[in-house]
Design a protein that fits this description.
TIM Barrel, 10 strands, 13 helices, alpha/beta, 360 residues, globular
């Protein structure tokens, strides 16, 4: 029998999901300049936990000072970030939601003007001016991802998600076209995946046994062909060390870009893969109950809600109560977003970055 949005879902480690909806990790530009959690960002996330999301995930939190990719980004590279993170983990737990920090480095998309650090990437990237990391620096990057995960654990979070999507550092290592490194971290598919799995292995070895590890991947773009995305997704799900895989699919029901997969939907390329004891979720333009339920009907275990969660802090409660629920039409007023718990910086970001989302 197909699960419903209200169905609970166990994970291999740690607490179970109360329903099938997670909060997608969303850039919101509300953290303080030093990466510490602000009251606005706390309020935004606390409202989503209160609104019924089974797992409440932060935006991408950078694991090195050099990894900052946008203003107001949450940090997790220093113990100075622990007080705010601890406050947030405690609040999410008190709301009955699972807590997770998405950990990330922006790679050649980082902003030296914010961090004061040089821009680095797996390879030289002339357009951004990024230089290639040395092997020793890659090893330090892996250690810093692990330390960030352990810092999240110390703060009381149930787990972390490794951000391997959307063209940031871990995704850059996966780039089949440009990651031509001649050490063990580039060239072959096995080598390009190595950083991700060394982080997973390190975290699993050093965190407590019930600490949850998730991974976010995005197919098709950034030099990552669909065949490789499928192969990596299967390996992540069957390695026995990852609790959930979050596939960011841009639009879950769209057709794949590659001609070889014509006649299918992007979601279909991942639901047929072996999963072991790992759970599979998808994100991508899920704005109503019916679309979210259709993903479960297609065979995924859970869904991640992004824009719908911005528009409605209680999207899960609404979606469970009403199979016909649809998000409010866009554009919306600034007052609506303020009422849904977005601070001024987040509202300004939505107004400038997402055309047609905010009035005026």
């Amino acid at each position: 029998m197909t699960a419903t949005l209200a169905s609970p879902l166990s994970l291999a480690r740690g607490p179970a999901l109360a329903n099938r909806m997670m909060l997608a990790p969303l850039t919101n530009m509300q953290s303080n300049a030093d990466g510490t959690l602000s009251d606005d960002e706390f309020h935004w996330l606390d409202m989503r936990a209160k609104g019924g999301f089974a797992l409440t995930m932060t935006c991408a939190a950078h694991v090195q000072r050099s990894g900052q990719g946008f203003p107001g980004q949450l940090g997790i590279w220093s113990d100075d970030h622990l007080p705010g993170l601890t406050r947030l983990a405690d609040a999410i737990r008190a709301r009955g939601s699972i807590s997770s920090v998405q950990i990330q480095h922006s790679g050649f998309r980082a902003m030296p003007e914010l961090s004061g650090e040089p821009r680095v990437a797996p390879f030289d990237e002339p357009e951004s001016g990024a230089r290639a990391l040395t092997t020793a620096e890659v090893e330090q990057l892996i250690e810093d991802f692990i330390l960030a995960g352990l810092r999240a654990e110390r703060a009381g979070f149930d787990g972390v998600e490794l951000h391997g999507a959307h063209g940031y550092m871990l995704c850059e290592f996966l780039d089949a076209e440009r990651n031509l490194r001649d050490d063990r971290y580039g060239g072959s598919f096995e080598n390009r995946c190595r950083v991700l799995f060394e982080i997973i292995d390190g975290l699993r070895a050093r965190a407590k046994p019930d600490f949850q590890i998730g991974v976010r991947l995005s197919p098709e773009r950034f030099g990552f062909p669909l065949a490789e995305a499928r192969a990596l997704a299967e390996r992540v799900m069957t390695c026995g060390k990852v609790d959930y895989l979050d596939m960011s699919l841009w639009d879950v029901f769209k057709a794949p870009n590659e001609e070889a997969y014509a006649g299918t939907r992007l979601i279909d390329q991942f639901v047929d893969l072996p999963r072991g004891d790992c759970r599979l979720g998808v994100a991508g333009k899920l704005m109503d109950s019916a679309s979210a339920q259709a993903c479960l009907d297609a065979g995924v275990d859970f869904v991640l809600i992004g824009r719908g969660a911005i528009l409605h802090h209680d999207f899960p409660k609404r979606a469970i109560a009403d199979p016909g629920f649809e998000s409010i039409a866009r554009p919306v007023t600034r007052a609506h977003l303020q009422g849904e718990g977005l601070g001024p910086a987040f509202i300004d970001y939505m107004a400038t970055a997402w055309q047609g989302f905010v009035e005026g």
